[in-house]
Amino acid sequence: MSLLRYTLRRIAQAIPVLIGIVTITFFLANQIPGDPVDIMLGPTPAQEQVEAIRAQYGLDRPIHERYLTYLAGVATGDLGLSIYYDRPVLEMILLRLPVTLLLMLSAFAFAIVTAIPLGVISAKRRNEPADHVSRIVSLIGVSTPSFWIGLVLIIVFAFHLGWFPARGLVLPWENPADVRGAATQFEVIRQSVHHLFLPMIGLGTLQMAQITRIERSSMVDSLQGEYVKLARAYGVPESTIVRKHAFQVAQLPVITIIGLGLSTALGGAVLTETVFEIQGMGRLIITAINNQDYQLIMGTTLVFGFVYVIGVIITDITYSYLDPRVTYGDD
Amino acid sequence: MSINSATSDDDTPDGDDESGGGPGEVEARVGLRYTLKQVRQDTTARIGTYIVGFITFVAAFAAFDYYVLDYAIAEALLYNPEADPQNVRRLLPPVGLENQFGQGVIEHPLGTDHRGRDILSRTIYGTRIAMTVGFLATAIGLGGGTVIGAVSGYYGGWIDDVLQRVTETIYAIPFLVLVIAFMTAFGRDLTFAMIGVGITAVPVFNRLIRSRVVSIREEDYVEAARAAGVKDRNIIFRHIIPNSFAPVLVQATLQVGVSILIVAGLSFLGFGAQPPTPSWGQMLSASRGYMLPAPTFSIFPGIAILITVIGFNILGDGLQDALDPRINN
């Protein structure tokens, strides 16, 4: 089976999961106590007004009918209207999703760039001081709440040293005219990197620690492999063995852990956005909940799920592309 | 002692060893006595036990003081200004910064919060909540995951398909978001935080138990039990599950730490423990408004979370090494 067919099959397999996500989200949102219409219209609304709003948002129809309508809507990209913002939910999400994706991508970039050398050094110098340091760092990393790292970073690097801004985010593709103190696009990008630095570390530390742990154990296994022993026997230099033979095979479990880490990182993004007051998907879902905005709660929850599923598909495909042993066969 | 409470359920069929084909080494690797012996020999596991033991002791102290003595010890050792609203001194720094020049030398070793409450005593009280939540959420995940995983793996077929698709779907929503949605629907307090976090742990244990069951199902002694007419339910609960003791114990230990982290995050967002209940996440949330005048207010509850979760992670790693037959000689 070709890579393309494998990709298509993997996407087809995801469809029931996506329908499942819509179902769970829909029924959870319908359990929410309180009536959104009451919140919109205040304590003593006119009866006709209530009925008009109910009809407008489809709240007067039975639940199974609403479910099917919603499912059909999701399939065509219609996530309904946000009661609080009075705009289409999809529009709100498309406005916020790039912010969260930018945050996530930078966090994973930070994690991968720092974790892989740490893990490799740790494995190469097993039980030496460098290994102990790297293991302690990664142990602390997996045990620290990301939002607390954010708070500490703000206190030290924003308030005391004044090196980085404590809140907000400038997007690199924003128009220079809309960004204060930026005349050119380059200036906008510079400001964006400056703003992104602390949130990136706050969100990325957990991923960094997890990837370091896997990288280390995977490299330790790989360095004990038969082919490595053979290469050594042939007199291949140790650095070449590490770089060419052991390293590539050892990356497969790392890709798996990155895929699994997406779930934690998406949840972590909600917290990081709160700490740094970044207007992304995380803040959007919290705003939606605080205003009992049904449609927006459903929309944001299922987009979180969709992003995760798509991320896992991408890591699966990367895995099968890199692993020579995968035959794309039936399993 | 925390190990006991987490595993006492699985401990009962300890004597099942002889039901195997022979009293082999692998069969002996189940049960509590073996675990304790291994833990004593493994340095990492021992350090983890000390930290978790210490945290459990602190939590027990807080629970005792709360339920039995009505804040008597906390008030005697660490002045509790809530009982004396006239004397509220706000945002005192910890001893060692400027506090020693005031009156708060012994009373507020870590300073006070924005309402003049002692940070150390609130941090100690936070331990009680964190430990309760960590253990109960894990127990819910373990219970649900074990039943679903065992049934799924043992029967296979369409039951397996249906159960696995459902847990897969639960797993497909980032767990913090799922718990937030769940709590919005059912309730914002700590009980629902615990249940919600427990539900997100179900797929983890389900996967673990299911894979064990599928591999053990074909073992000779299970075949023999089935041939001898032992009921399916008894085979699952008396033979298969006890044989999965070691990996489940490791996973459960790590899961307690994960649950504490998630619940702290939830409380930070305003889901979970509600004020004035002293929980670490909620203390950190309150500290956000005072990061400039009182940075230490944000530091200590975080360190408490860090130490607790590190304890469970070290213990989990240590147990893994101690109970892994490949590592033992």
Account of the 3D structure:
The complex is a heterodimer of chains A (331) and B (329). The radius of gyration of chain A is 24 Å and the shape is globular. In chain A, strands 1-2 form a two-stranded antiparallel sheet. Chain A has a domain of 199 residues: MetI-like fold (Orthogonal Bundle). With 331 residues, chain A is mainly alpha-helical. The mean pLDDT of chain A is 85. In chain A, a hairpin with a 4-residue loop joins β1 and β2. Chain A is built from twelve helices and two strands. With 329 residues, chain B is mainly alpha-helical. Chain B has one domain: MetI-like fold (Orthogonal Bundle), CATH 1.10.3720.10. Chain B has 14 helices and no strands. In chain B, α6 packs antiparallel against α7. At the A-B interface, α1, α6, α7, α10 and α11 of A face α7, α8, α12, α13 and α14 of B. Chain B: Keywords: Cell membrane, Membrane, Transmembrane, Transmembrane helix, Transport. Chain B: Its main location: membrane. Chain B: It comes from Halorubrum xinjiangense. Chain B: It is found in: Cell membrane.
In brief:
The complex is a heterodimer of chains A (331) and B (329). Chain A is an all-alpha fold and 331 residues long.
- Please give the alpha-carbon distance between the first and last residues of chain A: 13 Å
Provide the CATH superfamily of chain B: MetI-like
Number of continuous helical runs of chain B? 14
CATH class identity of chain B? Mainly Alpha
The total number of structural domains of chain B is 1
Kindly report the average pLDDT value of chain B.
Answer: 77
C-alpha end-to-end distance of chain B: 27 Å
- The value of Rg of chain B in angstroms is 23 Å
Q: What is the arithmetic mean of pLDDT of chain A?
A: 85
